[in-house]
Amino acid sequence: MSEPVVLLPGLMCDARVFFHQIVALSLTRPVIVMPLGPGMVEDMSAAVVAAAPQRFAIAGQGLGGTVALDVIRRAPDRVTRCILISTDPFGETPQAAGAREARLVAARMGRLDEAMKGEIPAAALAPGPGREEVLEVMLDMARVQGPEQYLAQAKAWQRRPDHQKTLRRWLLPTLIIAGSCDTLVPPRRQEFTAELMPKGRFLKLASAGHLPTLEAPELVSDAMEEFLNEPLMLR
């Protein structure tokens, strides 16, 4: 059987964000979902390294992708390959951090839905009949975790490290998956991420925005499966 893959959900997401991928990938390999724990990105990556198998592939969505990059920085010899989905590897700009303050206030006042709609607005998803369903799944995942988790993860996101050095030093294959309608992490920024990586590949999905694992689940699963089934590269 192929090496296991560790899946890291994004901001206020749980295993449901990878539902289709879990089912599809489990046919050929062990699949481990590790929801993000407390603390900063560095704390989250330390927890992943401590709990993960000795050798594993890693896939992260959004904030989970940032944590995946920190896992690579921390334990590069244990990761066989990487998939980044809707991931921004650069540090938070002061403007973006400032804009989030209103969402933090809303969450503290018990308006978590409002905060999450600010984090992932409808305009960041692909238009069409499935948009409202995806938004409702996103909101329900957040409601289950609650406002305190949002405040903690938003703080981690604001203070995330810049991983440009990690990108340039990582010499094993990485697949970058972007939705063409993503306004939060524009496809061009994600394509630039792939260009910084010696073995980075870029895939843009026309039928998706910021949550392609939910918006175009079959396409994402197929791309991940094809990538993960390639012969394992030895260091």
List keywords for this structure.
single chain; 235 residues; alpha/beta; Rossmann fold; 2 domains; 6-stranded parallel beta sheet; 11 helices
Produce a short descriptive summary:
Helices cover 48% and strands 14% of the residues.
Report on the architecture of this protein:
With 235 residues, the protein is α/β, with parallel strands linked by helices. The protein has two domains: 5-92 and 161-228, Alpha/Beta hydrolase fold, catalytic domain (Rossmann fold), CATH 3.40.50.1820; 94-153, no CATH class. It is 48% helix and 14% strand. The protein has eleven helices and six strands. Strands 2-1-3-4-5-6 form a six-stranded parallel β-sheet, sandwiched between helices. Helix 4 (94-108) runs antiparallel to helix 5 (112-119). The longest helix is centred in the middle third of the chain and has 15 residues, at 94-108. The protein is globular, with a radius of gyration of 16 Å. The model has no long low-confidence stretch (mean pLDDT 95).
List the helices and strands and how they pair.
Elements: E1 5-8, H1 19-25, E2 31-33, H2 41-51, E3 56-61, H3 63-74, E4 79-85, H4 94-108, H5 112-119, H6 131-145, H7 147-158, H8 164-169, E5 174-179, H9 187-196, E6 200-205, H10 212-215, H11 217-228
Parallel strand pairs: 1-2, 1-3, 3-4, 4-5, 5-6
Helix pairs in contact: 1-11, 2-3, 4-5, 4-7, 5-6
Please count the helical segments.
11
Average pLDDT value? 95
**Helicity range:** 40-55%
* Strand-pairing-aware structural class: alpha/beta
Question: How does the overall form come out from the CA principal axes?
Answer: globular
Radius of gyration: 16 Å
